[in-house]
Amino acid sequence: MKSVTARAQDVEGRWFENTGEELLARAMLHETDHLNGRLFISHVSALKRDLIKRKIKKLMRAGEWE
């Protein structure tokens, strides 16, 4: 089982912890990446990143990506 525990502060500054498993754990890590300025594409290799960029450019030329 995959799990993650996040420690954070509420709007009043009180600390709390929240543990998520499976899909919730993945979502928590995804949102933490966003808070740290990291995107999904940052996790893939340079080769895969270039392939993704090429596919997006091709879709843009075809008018299927905005």
Which short descriptors sum up this protein?
single chain; 66 residues; alpha+beta; 2 domains; two-stranded antiparallel ribbon; 21% strand
Spatial strand arrangement across the major sheet: 1-2
Order of helices and strands: EEHH
**Through-space gap between termini:** 38 Å
Beta percentage is 15-25%
What would you report as the Rg, rounded to the nearest angstrom? Answer: 17 Å
Count of structural domains: 2
Largest sheet: 2 strands, antiparallel
Number of strands: 2
How many helical stretches?
A: 2
Class by alpha and beta content: alpha+beta
Q: Which residue ranges are poorly predicted, with pLDDT under 50 across at least 5 consecutive positions?
A: none
The helix content is 40-55%
Short structural summary:
With 66 residues, the chain is an alpha+beta fold. It folds into two domains: 1-35; 41-66. The chain has helices spanning 23-35, 46-61, and strands at residues 3-9, 15-21.
